[in-house]
Design brief:
five-stranded antiparallel beta sheet; 60% strand; globular
Length: 193
């Protein structure tokens, strides 16, 4: 993970929980910022509200984001990560699906307060290869900038009878070019009942 195109990559370990019937999620990570310095980051969309908090050493607050722009951004993240909880493709009542091309599906999420859309590219085996949006809220200092955004998924593997991607990366599409800011490998996946 990295915070800007000029910053180095920082290793992290994370756990994420999904609601199988919708887009609610909670991602908790420890990111190594420098030798002996780590940050605890919690990113979530729960009960219709998005939230992002970061604390150095798990104690000192360094970032916090809430409000309508965060709600929309986190809802979009929750939709883009549907390949990791495929049950929600058909279970979420707030979704509206449409085919935009032979290999593309657009999902629109509306819950009364937040509306967001993500377009997926799907291969011949029905696996999602990418998700994208022309406009997702991005926090820049104290401002919100609507920015094109995309993610890719690779190397699907079965865990607990569910096929999910094990490699993914996400990028903002800035005027100066694509800025990949997150890369991850899934090492474990469990279906909880």
């Amino acid at each position: 993970m990295r915070f800007s195109p000029r910053r180095p990559w920082m290793p992290f370990k994370a756990e994420q929980w999904f609601d199988g019937r919708g887009i609610d999620f909670r991602w908790q990570a420890w990111i190594r910022m420098a030798p002996l310095v780590s940050a605890r980051v919690v990113d979530s969309y729960e009960g219709g509200q998005g939230s992002l908090t970061a604390q150095l050493l798990g104690l000192v607050p360094v970032a916090r984001s809430r409000g309508p722009a965060t709600d929309k951004g986190e809802a979009m993240r929750g939709m883009a990560e549907l390949p990791w909880h495929p049950f929600a493709f058909c279970e979420a009542p707030q979704f509206r699906w449409e085919s935009t091309a032979a290999d593309k599906l657009r999902v629109t999420f509306v819950n009364g307060e937040t509306q967001a859309a993500v377009e997926f590219e799907v291969d011949g085996e029905g696996q999602v290869r990418s998700g994208a949006a022309l406009s997702r809220p991005r926090i820049v200092g104290k401002s919100v900038v609507e920015t094109a955004w995309s993610g890719t998924f690779r190397e699907y593997k079965a865990f607990d009878g569910v096929r999910v991607p094990t490699l993914a990366e996400v990028a903002w599409h800035l005027p100066e070019g694509a800025f990949t800011y997150w890369r991850a490998r899934v090492t474990d996946f469990r279906v909880l009942t």
